Amino acid sequence: MAWRLICDRGQQVWKYLKNENSTEIYFDKQNLNSADKVYRENAIQLNYKPLNIDESQYDKLKIPIFNEQLSSSAVKSTLNAINYYKSLQVEDGHWPGDYAGPMFLLPGAIITGYITKFDFTEEEKYQMIKYLFNHQLSDGGWGTHIESRSTMFGTVLNYISLRLLGISFNDQRIKNAYKFIQREGGAMYAPSWAKFWLCVLGVMPWEGVNSLFPELWLLPQWLPFHPSRYWCHCRMVYLPMSYIYGEKIVGEISPLIKQLRNELYIDKYEYIDFTKYRNSISPLDLYSPQTILLKMLNFFTNSYEHIYNRQLRNKASEFLISYIEAEDEHTNYIDIGPVNKFLNMLSVWHSKGRQSKQFELHLNRVNDYLWLSEDGMKIQGYNGSQLWDTVFSIQAILETGLAHLYTNSLNLAYYYLDISQVLEDVKDNIKYNRHISKGGWPFSTRDHGWPITDCTAEGIKTTLLLHEQIFNCPRRITSDRLEYAIHFILSTQNKDGGWASYELQRSGSWIEWLNPAEVFKDIMVDYSYVECTSACVQALLKFRLEIHFPNHRRKEIDIAIDRGIKFIKKNQRKDGSWYGSWAVCFTYGTWFAIEGLIAAGESTESNTIKKAVEFLLSKQNFDGGWGESYLSCVYKSYIDHKQSQVVNTAWAVLSLMSAKADSIAIRKGIQFIINKQCSNGDWNQQSISGVFNGNCMISYTNYRNIFPIWALGRFIKNNYIQQ
């Protein structure tokens, strides 16, 4: 019996094959970030062959030869690394990897399954239970993500999940979690997103949460606080939440639900006045406190619930469910992310019924979110990071100057670029507040369909690099398609000169005063980010240099680049760094900023670059590496990790090489990367490296291969030019 990953055009589905054998892979609790061993060991078994190149073949194979020891070692390390990494590539051209980490995602799937009576297989449930217990902490609780301390958000939802999966209250691990919840005052001190799921499940009355005021969606869209102006992830989560709240959907009150009512609170369920706890939250969870304005609005909307007009509420529900169905159709029932995936699924179950075609289509895409690692089965933060990992993988290999050795792998990756670009706008995009999509690249798959600025930018840049460097590149991505991609990029530049993630910023930052999610910051609108801006600037610069597009929208592109560079410079911090909003953290943001500035012609002698270099050099550790804690993201101040991290080190040395900085520091960083490499070419998985909304971390297991290869490749190339 064995698990196998089946991939088709980016879709990743884990299958349990009873007629195949496999060995049990154990989870090392010393490192809570999974090493993705289930997929990798399967792939290695099928595809990996030890490197069979020795130095006597270098000249024939056009591999750089160095007399200097570190450069020679870097060549061997790079060849070994790519040889390993290409064995992980699948037939459609992408590199699969673990994109999980948040501990509040799987409970949404389990609760939805329980209410709607769709069931995971016994093998899936076994792996889910394994995952949840593997990440239970010594105090009995669970964190908001796999590396955080225990929170009520993580603990309440995962306690419920294990009970719904059949774990007895008498299990000692459950008792430990029960004690944690009791110590913190009971489930009424969980944050609002957790309380929402409690209400749906029937273990808290709807009076326990603040009104979501479904009628808000019927107000004129020109209002600056209309939901159409929210960041798309926020918008698409509160859309089904508003429908579910408006309809007060509650699952069947089974004997187990009655037991949970007794387990989750200190006082008897029947005697609790839940209205008093609407705004209650444990200090363990509080990251973005409710503002006075939000509390005032909650008072009015909660009062409105006593007098609302049923006809108007029905009109709101009709609009909301039509919007939910549009999102389902636009994304082939994958939806923008796992939170709204299962909320949409619950909404469709209520509106259309368990036997409806729409619910069946939802069921067919549940497995898109499941991922299996040695720690168990989890829900990913997206339906994968397929496109994102693939464009970086291509660029890393091209940077080495050894692309001629890997044309088959690169052409396969090009195929994935081809099949993942979005080729048309969604139906009724204006009605449903969607930006244009045509020409963009998504984070994961074309089926998902939400294009992103930096993914599109990296798609453009990578396509042009492959057309330029790979002699037999099939060039299926035509000039017209690249021009549409450029149009998407130009259409998404904000007034401040920067680029946000998916869309233009649609309201001011003041709207964060209305942020109801106490555990996340900056979720209400799509802000400009240094990483997205740098990626877009680099793509426009690369496109502008192409002989095939000498005058295509040249003036607009020139202006956009200039505005983007000004945005990057404006957002440099006093210490010379840039905050990274999508990975950990200042080493990541600073890498993007330096790459964009240098590509645009910024002098390495400028104060901007000098300050950035000084910042990076000040953070290098004695062992030659850099190590940054995820807490840097949370507190927005550089916090050292207790150990140097290969990924942080790669970002730092890439930055320093672009800036033509201190060669001694670079060489020490490269030596650290080489020293940390495993004999098969891999690197051991270290701490979590991704982040969103400041307070939640997420895994990118392929980063441990991509960025060391990239750094080593640039080191080889630079030294070969100087030799």
TrEMBL record:
Annotated SUPFAM superfamilies: Terpenoid cyclases/Protein prenyltransferases
CDD domains: SQCY_1
Source species, domain of life: Eukaryota
Domain Squalene cyclase N-terminal: 81-333
Family: Belongs to the terpene cyclase/mutase family.
UniProt keyword terms in alphabetical order: Isomerase, Lipid biosynthesis, Lipid metabolism, Repeat, Steroid biosynthesis
Pfam families referenced in this protein's UniProt entry, alphabetically: SQHop_cyclase_C, SQHop_cyclase_N
Domain Squalene cyclase C-terminal stretches: 385-715
EC number(s) reported in the record: 5.4.99.-
GO molecular function: oxidosqualene cyclase activity
Name by which UniProt lists this protein: Terpene cyclase/mutase family member
GO BP of this protein: steroid biosynthetic process; triterpenoid biosynthetic process
Entry's Gene Ontology cellular component terms: lipid droplet
PANTHER family in alphabetical order: LANOSTEROL SYNTHASE (PTHR11764:SF20), TERPENE CYCLASE/MUTASE FAMILY MEMBER (PTHR11764)
